[in-house]
Write a structure and sequence with these properties.
Number of strands of chain B: 9
Largest sheet of chain B: 9 strands, parallel
Helix content of chain A: 40-55%
Order of helices and strands of chain B: HEHEHHEHHEHEEHEHEHEHH
Largest interface: A-B, 37 and 41 residues
Number of helices of chain A: 16
Oligomer: heterodimer
Largest sheet of chain A: 6 strands, mixed
Strand content of chain B: 5-15%
Radius of gyration of chain B: 17 Å
Helix content of chain B: 40-55%
Structural class of chain A: alpha/beta
Strand order of the largest sheet of chain A: 3-4-14-9-10-13
Strand order of the largest sheet of chain B: 5-4-3-2-1-9-8-7-6
Structural class of chain B: alpha/beta
Shape of chain A: globular
Number of strands of chain A: 14
Number of helices of chain B: 12
Radius of gyration of chain A: 19 Å
Strand content of chain A: 15-25%
Order of helices and strands of chain A: EEHHEHEHEHEHHEHEHHEHEHEEHEHHEH
Distance between the termini of chain B: 27 Å
Chain lengths: 394, 265
Amino acid sequence: MSLPDKAGFFGMYGGRFVPAELNAVLDEIEQAFHQFKNDEDFQRELNYYFKYYVGRPSPLYYAERLTNAIGGAKIYLKREDLNHMGAHKINNTIGQVLLAKRLGKNRIIAETGAGQHGVATAAACALFGMECIIYMGEEDTRRQALNVFRMELLGAKVVPVATGTRTLKDAVDEALKDLIANYKTTFYMLGSAVGPAPYPAMVKHFQSVIGQEAKEQILELAGRLPDYLVACVGGGSNAIGLFAPFFDDKDVKMIGVEPAGRGLDTPDHAATITLGTPGIIHGYKCYLLQDDEGEPLPVYSIAAGLDYPGVGPEHSYYKDIGRAEYVTVTDQEAIDAFLKLAKTEGIIPAIESSHAVAYGMKLAAELDPDKIIIINLSGRGDKDVAEVARILGK
Amino acid sequence: MTGIERINNCFTGRAARKKCLAAFLTAGDPDLTVSETYCRAALQHVDLLEIGLPFSDPMADGPVIQAAYKRTLSAGTRLGDIFAMAQRLRTTTEKPILFMVYLNIILQRGLVRFLQEAADSGVDGLIVPDLPPEEADEILGMAHQRGLGLVFLVAPTSTDERIKLAAVKSTGFLYCVSLRGVTGVRTKLGTDLPEFIQRVRTSTDLPLMVGFGISGPEQVRQVTAIADGAIVGSALVKLLAEGEDRDENLRKLGEFLSALKKAAE
C-alpha cells in the first residue's frame, strides 16, 4: 500500500492546509522530491554521504547485559546515537540538503526545539557550503545554550523567536513565514515527519533507512523479524523511520512512546496521540493537544525534543487503524532508564530515546525470552548529562 | 437578505470608478467592548468589514496582527462573545461583515455548529486563509446552505489552475495577496503586482480585492487603479495599538479611513 495519497493524506490526517502563498512553494518541493527520490545519481550521492559522512549503517546491537538484567525478551538497540552529530536527525538533513542543491537553493532555513535538528542542519549546510539560518524559540535558546553555540560553530545564524510561547511551535511559524517571503532562494529543511505535504512523506523517506537497515540486520542476527519495535514519538520522525519499512509485516508490533512529563493527570505532558483530538497545526491535520476553542495547548516534557503539541500525520493514522500502539512514559521513568542503560551497557542515551528504553524494558519484563524487541536509540545523551546531574542533585 | 447576497451586492451595481474599500480589524483587541466601537466606526467609512478571529498560530499573518491576536487571547475573548458582537453590529448595518478565521477554530467548534452560529449572528461570509480551495468542498456546501459565502485567496505564486479553482469557489470577490509574504505594513507594493492582477483577470470575471501590505492612501490609489478594491488591515491594527486613548483612536481611525476612502474613489 502507498502512503500518503496524492493530496498528501494518511487517512484523514496530513494534507496541506496552508495559505495560498505557500501552496505553490510546496508544489515545487514536492515535485523535486518525487523527481529525485528514485533518481540513480541522487541515490548514489545520498548513500555516499550516509556511509562516509554519517557513518551508516548504524549497528543493531544486542543489549545482552540489559536483557539478562531484566530477564525477559531479547532487547536490540538500533544505534542511531552513533551517527555523526549523535542522532538520527542527520539522515534527514543530508537528504534534504541534496534536494536543495538540485533545486539550486543556497539559503537553508530550519526550526529547532532542543537544537538537535538545528545542529544536524548546520552540519549539512557547512558540508555543502550553504547559508544556514536556524529559528529557535527564545526560551529554547536559553535552555539549550550549548547547542546554540554548536550551531554557530558550524557557521549557522541562530535567530531567537520571541513570539507566542517562544518555543518550537513558534519557531516553525517563523520558518514558514520566512519561506513564504524568500522561497525563490530558500529551502526550508523541516526536521520531523510533520508539517504540510510533502514534508511528512519526505522526512519519512529519508529516515526509513533506519528501519530498512534494522530489518536486514535482525534477519542476519536472529534469523527472523522482531516481535516489537519501540521508539519515542515527539513529532515522530525516528519512530516512522523505524516503523514504516515494517508496515506490511503484520506480525511485527509497533509501539510509539509519548512523553507523560509530570503525569497525564497534570497539564505538564506532551502526550499528543494519547490525550489529543484531531486538529490542524502548522498546515497539516493530526492529533493535537488543544483547548475547547482550538488553540494549541502549552506542552511539557523533560525531553525538549518531544515537546510539541502536534504529531506526525502518519502516526495519527497508524493509531486510528490500529497498526501501532501509543503509550506514555513519565519524566521519572525516562531518567531511570537513562541511568539503567548507562550502568548496564555503558551507553548514555538521549533523554528523548530514554522514553523508548523505559517502555522497552517494561515490555521485555512481561515477555518470554524467545521474543525480540528492537528499541530505536535515536540519539546520544551527552547533551542531557548536565540536566540529569542537576535533577539528581549532583 | 442572505450573506451571499450582501457580499454580491457590495460589488454589483457599483459605478466603475467607485472602488471598494475593506477594513480588517481584530475582534477583542484590546478587549471586546472597545473593538466593537472600532468596528462600528470603521463601518461608517468602508464598504466591507473583515473581523479577524484570534488564533495563536496565524500562518498568514505578520507581527502586527499576530501581536493583536495575542492581546485578544490574553484578554480571554471567547468565540461566543465574538458571535454576539457580530450580531450587534448586524443590527446597525447592511454592509457585508466577514470573519477571517483559521480552519482549526472552525473544526474544533464543529463545522455545522460554527457555520450555523455564524449565519445566526448575521455574518455574511468567511475567509479561511489556511483552507485551500481543493480541500473546501464539504465546508463550501454547508456554508452555502446557510447563505454564508466563502472567499478564497490567491497569491502571486499561485498557478493559473489554482487561481481558476479559487475563483470558481469564491463568493463575491477574489482576495488577491499583493506580495510574497505575510500580512503587515509595507512601504511599497510589489513591483510584479500589476502583472499578477492582469494574470488573475484573465482567469476570472470576479471582482478582485487586493490586500496584504497596504499601508496608506497612496497604495490604495495604486491598487484601485488596477483592481476593484483594497483591503487594509495591519495599518489599522497598528494605528489602534499605538494609540493610548479610545476616543483619540476613534478620531484617528475615522480620519485615516476617510482618507483611504477618498483615495479609493
